[in-house]
Amino acid sequence: MSTDEASASPWASSVVLGSGDTAFIRPLTVDDKPALAAFHRQQSAESIYRRFFSPKPELNEKELEHFTAVDMIDRAALVVESHDEFIAWASYERWPGRNEAEAAFMVADNRQGEGIATLLLEHLAAIAHANGIERFTAEVLGDNRAMLAVFAKAGWPLQRRFDSGVVDLDWDLATTDEFLDSVERREQRADSRAVARILIPRAVAVIGASERPGTVGDAIWRNVVDGVDAPTYAVNPRHDTIHGHPCVRTIDELPDEVSLAIIAVPAPALEATIDACIAKRMRGAVIVTSVDGTDIDIAALVGRARRNGLRIIGPSSMGIASPRPETRLQAALVEVSLPPGGVAISMQSGSLGGSLLRKARDVELGISWFVSLGDKSDISANDLLQFWEFDENTTVVAMYTESFGNPRKFARIARRVSRTRPIVAVRTGAAATGEMASALYQQAGLIEVPTVPALLETVRVLATQPVLRGPRVAVLTNSRSPGTLASAALRAAGLEPVDGPITLDWNTRSAEYPTAMRAALNDDEIDGLLVIHAPAVADDVDAAARHIDTGALDNSKPVVAVLLGGADGPVAPGSRVPAFTFPEQAAAVLGRSYDYARWLRDEASEPDAKMRPVDPGAAHVIITEALAATDSGDDIHLDLATRRRLLATYGIEMAPATESTPDTAVADANDIGFPVAVKAVRRRPGRSARAGVALDLATDDDVTESIAVMHDSLGDDADDLIVQAMAPPGVDVRIRCDHDGQLGAIVTVGLGGAQADAIDDRTSRLAPVSPASATTMLGETRLSAALDAADFDSWPLVDAVVLAAQLASDHPEIAELDLNPVIVSEDAAIVTDALIRLVRHVSEDGPLRRLD
Fold it and tell me: Of residues 368 and 357, which shows the higher confidence score?
């Protein structure tokens, strides 16, 4: 394998180090022998001794050949490069005749403490797992505490033995919950630091700064030079000064402290500009330049930047900004003249970003950050969420996105962030299409809004008011008609309008509002308050606003106001109470706040322990054997007996059944026990013998007569039969799981039976799901009402949904799992028909931290 081939290997990728820097991991090749020898000579004697347990100032030719001539199966080796220099390498070697391998690492002395060894360990483990290696071993000197800590913190349970100053370690490479949690924590810290290196720069350079009015370079430079507390520099090859400030001709002339470039150069100059930023070892670049209609290979450009520690926002970005004093940054194409606050805004569309900022200024929205992602070639909403999750100045996230970069990662991160910070999102374009996208948003707890104005309305309430914990909202108004409109709007938003303890009327003075408001807020039967004021005269608006603000002080429940004749914004200058022009806006926002509170209450928890014992290992054996039993095509449909065995490994009950023929059906029915159902394998829609389904057969004659009717109707299609024990009567339900290439397993639940597709009663989530989430799903369909009408408890169905979703999630070879109908009765949910389709699935790499 050549170096170029290694760089294109499936095991090669850009990665984010624990420091937030980026680097490139790839397989070692024999072409790397000189570079590996040079790397070795540069390390301290102590580091070499700890790696090789002996003084070894040089690697001889035989050792270099051994370390670099690897097959990436039984022997694998990886190198980490930054700016085309080796900064670390690692390897494993399989023990002969065993499914175990010994792992070893070496990190450059000047790059230790950046999480490189742990990252290499994760990647080596993924390679080993793909090659059937189930266990790693390692030898570490007893005083090498740093390396012992690497293994201890990786997340796998270690076994240790100490002998003669050496610690022998070994551990299973199973993807345990502890390992996944550990990887997720490391990923969050690294991604957050990578974003911080851009948003909190040491010094900023505007490349393409201009003093020609009306140009992009002029607009950005004016904003940057006046709005950034860090040192700022202008770069333009034709100027010595820009608006009276010094200007350098080339990027190379910039001081080394410059960590962020705002790039506004013509598109033909973009690639050379990025390469110059790489050479200057900058950390970030915000590309305002558009590459639409050009032949620039932006993917290759981003790949080159990532390998060398440069992260990119854009192209076609409007820039980044923060008005907060501690992070003051004005590096955007338009002036972000907003007060500091708790709302972080991520926009993909540049043109909409300008409109949003102008509207946000009108309503005095306080923000922590504004980031225009543009084309999202590198930094994405995923990265921003990782940063904002623990940003103490951010309390609400507002997002406008047109596409998902890595949907599964987005869902995982957004779900975690949503537990502590509401995320309000407008989605359109590719991000808005299909049931899968809807399942992603619901699973992640995102508060979805239809428009950008609705986005602003929602975030300004969530940023200033407590979440609405219950549905009862008191409408406090001095005018009957607006009150009637507000009540209708609250009902439409899924809320319950109620009267407050003190009612108002047309004769109420504005000074009486605080007393009525406090009475409502102190009432345990009221969860939130919508205050409406219709002024008798125009001058009364300001007075009422001040009194409403006073009445809402120190409130623990959400308060929103409607000032007829007023404007959207704070109810009074400096107030935290949001005011709206019309009741419909306020009611819609309160409805979204309550939906979010219900998600926090019912679905925010992770899927917990299984409701019945499950056996993933047994399921894996059944699936592996089924795939190995045939080589015909990529799709395999399991037979009846295998379906039953596979479902049983996850505690999913399927009614006893056997494959049969017209000649054996009577005997099979007697073996199973009457009453039975007889079903043609190739049947028609419907629930009659003529359609191929005969139910509640109690005698041999019933079986014989039903088969005769089937043959008369279906002909040869009635030759292959299933004889099955009758399940207790109940509600027909469909539980379906499909494997999506980007999102993983999706579980869908709704009314079932032969007409399930025509009924189209269903809701979806990403798998796995918790019992609380499964319960919520039932309430989103007609199932809850059907179970209540039959006086059946929902727990057997919730149990079945959780387990089916877990089965599909644990085994990505299951491309389709369709249980229809599942008959839910008083104390059981029994599968009476199932389709399970497998695909030949390449073993997953595991939770690899990688950028591409």
Answer: 368
Residue with tokens 């991604």: 191
Do the strands 762-766 and 204-207 form a parallel or antiparallel pair, or are they unpaired? unpaired
Distances (CA, A) of 492 to 497, 590, 592, 821: 11, 11, 12, 33
Q: How long is the chain?
A: 852
Dihedral in degrees, nearest 10, Cα atoms 459, 460, 464, 467: -40
> Which residues, in sequence order, are bridge partners of residue 694?
678
Cα separation, 102 vs 138, whole angstroms: 5
What does the alpha-carbon distance between residue 136 and residue 172 come to, in Å, rounded to a whole number? 7
Buried b (16+ CB within 10 A) or exposed e, 827-847: ebbbbbbbebbbbeeeeebbb
Distances (CA, A) of 535 to 506, 512, 532: 9, 14, 10
Q: How far apart are CA 292 and CA 297, in angstroms?
A: 11
Residue 433 CA, distance from chain mean position: 17
* Token pair of 41 as six digits: 């000579």
For residue 809, give the amino acid letter: S
Rounded Cα distance, 767 and 737, in Å: 8
37: CB partners within 8 A, 6+ apart: 58, 59, 64
Q: What is the mean pLDDT of the chain?
A: 90
Distances in whole angstroms, Cα of residue 175 to Cα of each of 179, 410, 813, 844, 849:
6, 20, 17, 11, 14
Which residues on neighbouring strands pair with residue 269, listed in sequence order?
none
Place of tokens 């024999």: 30
Residue 335, helix vs strand vs coil? coil
Bridge-based pairing of strands 204-207 and 232-235 is: parallel
CA distances from 768 to 26, 104, 648 (A): 33, 35, 18
pLDDT tens figures, 759-794: 778 899 988 888 988 999 999 999 999 999 999 999
| C-alpha separations of 226 from 245, 328, 341, 357, 716 in Å | 11, 10, 20, 19, 83
SS (H, E, C) 552-605: CCCCCCCEEEEECCCCCEECCCCCCCEEECCHHHHHHHHHHHHHHHHHHHHCCC
Helix (H) / strand (E) containing 411: helix 407-418
CA–centroid distance for 323 within its chain? 28
Whether 652 shows a pLDDT value over 50: the answer reads yes
pLDDT band at 841 (very low <50, low <70, confident <90, very high): low
Question: Which helix (H) or strand (E) segment is 139 a member of?
Answer: strand 135-141
Count CB-CB contacts under 10 A for residue 626: 20
Contacts of 673 (CB under 8 A, 6+ apart): 725
3 state SS of 629: coil
Give the span between the Cα atoms of 460 and 576, in whole angstroms: 9
Nearest C-alpha neighbor of 365 from the set 454, 296, 299, 457: 457
Find the DSSP H helices in 138-215.
145-153, 177-199
Which residues, 6+ apart, have CB-to-CB distance to 588 below 8 Å? 454, 457, 489, 493
Q: What is the DSSP letter of 743?
A: T
Residue 153 to residue 329: CA distance in whole angstroms: 36
Per-residue DSSP letters for 465-480?
A: S----SSEEEEEES-H
Helix 381-388 / helix 177-199 crossing angle, nearest 10 deg? 90
Residue 665 identity: A
**Amino acid symbol at 690:** R
**DSSP-based three-state secondary structure for 101:** strand
Model confidence at 845, pLDDT cuts 50, 70, 90, reads: very low
Q: Say if residues 722 and 639 touch (Cβ distance below 8 Å).
A: no
